[in-house]
C-alpha cells in the first residue's frame, strides 16, 4: 500500500529519519553485531590475543549441563506462567463479559496490576511468602508445610511462577474481554436455542471463536516470561537457591557480571536473539488473523 | 443472555470479587506493612490492620532513605525514574513520528530498506544485547547519566509502525488542500498531521510512560552512583541478603511509591491506556 499524494524533496526525508536511524544503528545494530562477532572469538586468559574459533563457543555452551538446565527451566517457567495466568484471566473475563451491574468497575479493579513493575512484584510476593516473616508463610507452617523458598529450589520456582502469573493476569484479562466482546451475541443465542447448556456453549462456541486471541496471548506470555521475569527473579531469589531459578536472560546477566568468558556470554546472547526472532515471527504470522477489536 | 441468569449472575459477581481480592491482596499487605514498626514485622508478627507509623515511615522514605543499605532518599529516585520515563516516552514518540512521516509521505532511495532497518529492531530487545550496549554507552561516557539511561531504549519500531499505519488512513485530499494553501511538507506536518495524531500520541504516551517507569535491567547495569538510581533499582538494593538488616516498612513504602505513578496513569487514563495497549500489540 502506498500513498498517492506525496511531497517532493531530496534531503528532508533523510533528515526526518536520521535521528531514529542513528539511535538504531548505534544502540541496536552495533551491539548486536558485536555480540555476533564476539561469539566466534576466543580470548586468552590475559585478554591479550583473540582468535577466531568458529562455533567452538556454541559447542561449549550446548555441552554445558548448566546451560541446558537453564533452557529447560526457561521453557518450563514460560508455559507454567502462561497457562496459569491465561486460564485464570479467561475465567475472570468470561464472568466480566456477562451483563453485570458495575462491570466497568470490575474492569478497572482488575487491570491496574499491569502497571506494577516486575521488581516491585518480586518484592511484594517475597514479603508475603518470606520464610521467617511472611504473613502467608505463618499459615503454611501452621498447616504443616515446611515452607522455605530461600532454601528449597522447587518452592522458589513455584513462587516465581506464581508472582509472574499474578502480574500477567490483568493484561490477559483485558485482551480476553476484548476478544469476547467481539463475538456476536447471536452466536450464543443460536447455540442456546439448539439446547446447549452454558458449559457446553463455552467449550463448543466461545472457546473456538476465541482461539486466535488465546494463541496470540500464549505467544505474548511466553515472550513476557522469557524477558520480563528478570526483575521478579532478581528481587526474589537472585537465581537461587543454587541455580534453581536461573533463566536464560538471568544467566546472560549473571555470567556477564562475573566477567568471565566473553565468547560464551556473547554466544548466549546470540541464541536468545534467535529465539526472539522465532517468537516474533510466529507472533506476526498470527497477528494478521487475530480477532479485530 | 438467554436463560434466566439470576443465580449465575451472583456466581459471576462472586468470582470477580475473588479475582479482585487476589489481585489486590499483595498490594494491601504492602500498604499495611508500610505503616508498621520494623521490629514487629521482623519478628513475623505483622498485623493485618494499619499501624500508626504512616507519616514517620513515608517521611523517612521520601526524604532520608534507609539508614543501612542505600542512604538515598526515595524522592530523588522517583525524580530519576520520572526523568527517564518522560525522556523515553517523549523521545520515542518524537523520533518515530517524524521517521514514519518521511516513510509515508516521501519517495526517496532506500526508503524501504530504512523501514526494514527500523522494523527489525523489534527483534533486538535490550536483554539480548546488554553487555555490548553497556560497552558502547561506557565508551561514549554516558554511564550514570540520563542520556545513558534513556537513549538506548528510545528507538521503537512499534511506534513507527503505529504512526505509519495511522498516516496511511489520512485522506490524500488533506494534503492536496494544504498544498493549494501553499503549505510545504513541514507546515503540513505541523498544522495538519500532528493535530490529527493527538489521540494516538496520547495513547502511546500512556503505555510508553509505564514501560519507561518500570525499566529495570538497563538502569541496574548502567547506574553505579546512588544518586542516579531509579526507584526500581533502589528497591532491590534495599533488600539486603542478611534479612535482619532489611528495613521492611521502608521497602514497602518504596514499593507503594514505585507503583503509584503508573497505576494512577492506568486508572485515570483508562480509555487511552486500553487503546494504547491494543494498538501497540497490533
From TrEMBL, chain A:
<dbReference type="InterPro" id="IPR000515">
    <property type="entry name" value="MetI-like"/>
</dbReference>
<dbReference type="GO" id="GO:0005886">
    <property type="term" value="C:plasma membrane"/>
</dbReference>
<dbReference type="Pfam" id="PF00528">
    <property type="entry name" value="BPD_transp_1"/>
</dbReference>
<feature type="transmembrane region" description="Helical">
    <location>
        <begin position="108"/>
        <end position="128"/>
    </location>
</feature>
<dbReference type="InterPro" id="IPR050809">
    <property type="entry name" value="UgpAE/MalFG_permease"/>
</dbReference>
<keyword id="KW-0472">Membrane</keyword>
<feature type="transmembrane region" description="Helical">
    <location>
        <begin position="75"/>
        <end position="96"/>
    </location>
</feature>
<comment type="function">
    <text>Part of the ABC transporter complex UgpBAEC involved in sn-glycerol-3-phosphate (G3P) import. Probably responsible for the translocation of the substrate across the membrane.</text>
</comment>
<dbReference type="GO" id="GO:0055085">
    <property type="term" value="P:transmembrane transport"/>
</dbReference>
<comment type="subunit">
    <text>The complex is composed of two ATP-binding proteins (UgpC), two transmembrane proteins (UgpA and UgpE) and a solute-binding protein (UgpB).</text>
</comment>
<keyword id="KW-0813">Transport</keyword>
<protein>
    <recommendedName>
        <fullName>sn-glycerol-3-phosphate transport system permease protein UgpA</fullName>
    </recommendedName>
</protein>
<keyword id="KW-1003">Cell membrane</keyword>
<dbReference type="InterPro" id="IPR035906">
    <property type="entry name" value="MetI-like_sf"/>
</dbReference>
<feature type="transmembrane region" description="Helical">
    <location>
        <begin position="266"/>
        <end position="287"/>
    </location>
</feature>
<feature type="transmembrane region" description="Helical">
    <location>
        <begin position="156"/>
        <end position="180"/>
    </location>
</feature>
<comment type="similarity">
    <text>Belongs to the binding-protein-dependent transport system permease family.</text>
</comment>
<feature type="transmembrane region" description="Helical">
    <location>
        <begin position="201"/>
        <end position="227"/>
    </location>
</feature>
<keyword id="KW-1133">Transmembrane helix</keyword>
<feature type="transmembrane region" description="Helical">
    <location>
        <begin position="12"/>
        <end position="32"/>
    </location>
</feature>
<feature type="domain" description="ABC transmembrane type-1">
    <location>
        <begin position="71"/>
        <end position="283"/>
    </location>
</feature>
<keyword id="KW-0997">Cell inner membrane</keyword>
From TrEMBL, chain B:
<dbReference type="GO" id="GO:0055085">
    <property type="term" value="P:transmembrane transport"/>
</dbReference>
<comment type="similarity">
    <text>Belongs to the binding-protein-dependent transport system permease family.</text>
</comment>
<dbReference type="InterPro" id="IPR000515">
    <property type="entry name" value="MetI-like"/>
</dbReference>
<feature type="transmembrane region" description="Helical">
    <location>
        <begin position="82"/>
        <end position="106"/>
    </location>
</feature>
<keyword id="KW-1003">Cell membrane</keyword>
<dbReference type="InterPro" id="IPR035906">
    <property type="entry name" value="MetI-like_sf"/>
</dbReference>
<keyword id="KW-0472">Membrane</keyword>
<keyword id="KW-0813">Transport</keyword>
<feature type="transmembrane region" description="Helical">
    <location>
        <begin position="113"/>
        <end position="134"/>
    </location>
</feature>
<feature type="transmembrane region" description="Helical">
    <location>
        <begin position="12"/>
        <end position="33"/>
    </location>
</feature>
<feature type="domain" description="ABC transmembrane type-1">
    <location>
        <begin position="78"/>
        <end position="269"/>
    </location>
</feature>
<feature type="transmembrane region" description="Helical">
    <location>
        <begin position="248"/>
        <end position="269"/>
    </location>
</feature>
<comment type="subunit">
    <text>The complex is composed of two ATP-binding proteins (UgpC), two transmembrane proteins (UgpA and UgpE) and a solute-binding protein (UgpB).</text>
</comment>
<keyword id="KW-1133">Transmembrane helix</keyword>
<feature type="transmembrane region" description="Helical">
    <location>
        <begin position="146"/>
        <end position="167"/>
    </location>
</feature>
<dbReference type="GO" id="GO:0005886">
    <property type="term" value="C:plasma membrane"/>
</dbReference>
<keyword id="KW-0997">Cell inner membrane</keyword>
<protein>
    <recommendedName>
        <fullName>sn-glycerol-3-phosphate transport system permease protein UgpE</fullName>
    </recommendedName>
</protein>
<keyword id="KW-0812">Transmembrane</keyword>
<dbReference type="Pfam" id="PF00528">
    <property type="entry name" value="BPD_transp_1"/>
</dbReference>
<comment type="function">
    <text>Part of the ABC transporter complex UgpBAEC involved in sn-glycerol-3-phosphate (G3P) import. Probably responsible for the translocation of the substrate across the membrane.</text>
</comment>
Amino acid at each position: 500500500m502506498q500513498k498517492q499524494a506525496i511531497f517532493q524533496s531530496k534531503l528532508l526525508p533523510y533528515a526526518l529519519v536520521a535521528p531514529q536511524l542513528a539511535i538504531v544503528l548505534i544502540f541496536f545494530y552495533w551491539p548486536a553485531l558485536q555480540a555476533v562477532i564476539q561469539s566466534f572469538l576466543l580470548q586468552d586468559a590475559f585478554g591479550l590475543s583473540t582468535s577466531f574459533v568458529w562455533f567452538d563457543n556454541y559447542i561449549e555452551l550446548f555441552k554445558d549441563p548448566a546451560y541446558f538446565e537453564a533452557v529447560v527451566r526457561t521453557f518450563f517457567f514460560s508455559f507454567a506462567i502462561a497457562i496459569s495466568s491465561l486460564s485464570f484471566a479467561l475465567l475472570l473475563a468470561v464472568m466480566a463479559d456477562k451483563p453485570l451491574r458495575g462491570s466497568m468497575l470490575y474492569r478497572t479493579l482488575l487491570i491496574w496490576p499491569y502497571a506494577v513493575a516486575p521488581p516491585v512484584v518480586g518484592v511484594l510476593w517475597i514479603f508475603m511468602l518470606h520464610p521467617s516473616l511472611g504473613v502467608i508463610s505463618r499459615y503454611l507452617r501452621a498447616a504443616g508445610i515446611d515452607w522455605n523458598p530461600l532454601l528449597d529450589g522447587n518452592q522458589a520456582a513455584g513462587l516465581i511462577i506464581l508472582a509472574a502469573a499474578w502480574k500477567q493476569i490483568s493484561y490477559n484479562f483485558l485482551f480476553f474481554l476484548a476478544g469476547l466482546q467481539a463475538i456476536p451475541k447471536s452466536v450464543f443465542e443460536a447455540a442456546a436455542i439448539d439446547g446447549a447448556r452454558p458449559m457446553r456453549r463455552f467449550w463448543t462456541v466461545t472457546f473456538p471463536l476465541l482461539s486466535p486471541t488465546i494463541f496470540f496471548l500464549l505467544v505474548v506470555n511466553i515472550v513476557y516470561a522469557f524477558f520480563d521475569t528478570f526483575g521478579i527473579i532478581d528481587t526474589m531469589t537472585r537465581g537461587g537457591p543454587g541455580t534453581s531459578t536461573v533463566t536464560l536472560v538471568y544467566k546472560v546477566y549473571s555470567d556477564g557480571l562475573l566477567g568471565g568468558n566473553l565468547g560464551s556470554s556473547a554466544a548466549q546472547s546470540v541464541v536468545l536473539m534467535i529465539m526472539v526472532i522465532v517468537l516474533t515471527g510466529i507472533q506476526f504470522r498470527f497477528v494478521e488473523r487475530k480477532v479485530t477489536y | 443472555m438467554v436463560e434466566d441468569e439470576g443465580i449465575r449472575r451472583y456466581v459471576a459477581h462472586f468470582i470477580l470479587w475473588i479475582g479482585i481480592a487476589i489481585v489486590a491482596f499483595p498490594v494491601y499487605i504492602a500498604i499495611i506493612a508500610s505503616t508498621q514498626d520494623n521490629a514487629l514485622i521482623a519478628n513475623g508478627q505483622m498485623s493485618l490492620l494499619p499501624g500508626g507509623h504512616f507519616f514517620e515511615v513515608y517521611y523517612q522514605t521520601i526524604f532520608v532513605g534507609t539508614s543501612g543499605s542505600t542512604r538515598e532518599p526515595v524522592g530523588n529516585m522517583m525524580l530519576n525514574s520520572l526523568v527517564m520515563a518522560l525522556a523515553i516516552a517523549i523521545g520515542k514518540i518524537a523520533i518515530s513520528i517524524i521517521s514514519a512521516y518521511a516513510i509515508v509521505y516521501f519517495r526517496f532511495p532506500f526508503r524501504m530498506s530504512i523501514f526494514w532497518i527500523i522494523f527489525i529492531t523489534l527483534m533486538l530487545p535490550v536483554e539480548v544485547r546488554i553487555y555490548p550496549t553497556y560497552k558502547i554507552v561506557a565508551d561514549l561516557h554516558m554511564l550514570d547519566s540520563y542520556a545513558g539511561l534513556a537513549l538506548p531504549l528510545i528507538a521503537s519500531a512499534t511506534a513507527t509502525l503505529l504512526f505509519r499505519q495511522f498516516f496511511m488512513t489520512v485522506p490524500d485530499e488533506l494534503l492536496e488542500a494544504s498544498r493549494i494553501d501553499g503549505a510545504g511538507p513541514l507546515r503540513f506536518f505541523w498544522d495538519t498531521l500532528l493535530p490529527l495524531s493527538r489521540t494516538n500520541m496520547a495513547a502511546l504516551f500512556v503505555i510508553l510512560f509505564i514501560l519507561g517507569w518500570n525499566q529495570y535491567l538497563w538502569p541496574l547495569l548502567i547506574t553505579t552512583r546512588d544518586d542516579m538510581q531509579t526507584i526500581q533499582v533502589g528497591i532491590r538494593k534495599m533488600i539486603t541478603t542478611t534479612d535482619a538488616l532489611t528495613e521492611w516498612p521502608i521497602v514497602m513504602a518504596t514499593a507503594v511509591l514505585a507503583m503509584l505513578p503508573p497505576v494512577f496513569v492506568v486508572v485515570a487514563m483508562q480509555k487511552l491506556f486500553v487503546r494504547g495497549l491494543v494498538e501497540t500489540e497490533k
